[in-house]
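re: ur question from yesterday

yeah so i grabbed the chain u mentioned. its 179 aa long if i counted rite. heres the sequnce exactly as i have it in my notes:
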Amino acid sequence: MRSFKVAAVALTAALAAFALAGCGQAATNQQTTDNSAANANAGNAAAASNEGQTADQVQAATNQTLTIQANGTTFHATLANNSSVDALVSLLQEGPLTLHMSDFSNFEKVGDLPQSLPRNDQQISTGAGDLILYQGNKFVIYYGENNWDFTYLGHVDGATKEALLGAFGAADVDVTLSL
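ran it thru and got these structure tokens back, copy pasting raw so excuse formatting
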């Protein structure tokens, strides 16, 4: 009889340990699920936090500057830090580049680059002075606002819509880019 009681106690203890281990595992699984959901929500919040920001707020700038000349006016721009800018800088190290730029929709000037550059597109909101690579082969200077998937190249220092329009005008314009 005594061995029956010892076996019953041992069996009860084993079942209790098994039940507690299962509860602990369930709690661990729940915590992992909660952490995964929290991380996913944080990532979604970070992505959503870029919405509505201007391009220069989204992309970290470098110390590299670009000189932009049009109709006797010179602007300086701070370039972003991405592979598109690296390729543009390499192109400009060969010498200044003059682009024939056309007005598009009364908020940007667009000119064809002589070669395609790597794209780093992301959803951004542009503002006056933002420099954008569009479709890998178009250099765009914004003087108005737009939201789209673009590659951010940089920002004209201290740019205003009025200053940019004063230099570029409403019609086509030749713009020279240099380092």
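noticed a couple things. The longest strand covers residues 146-156. also Residues 55-178 form a domain with the Cyclophilin fold (CATH 2.40.100.20).
anyway ttyl
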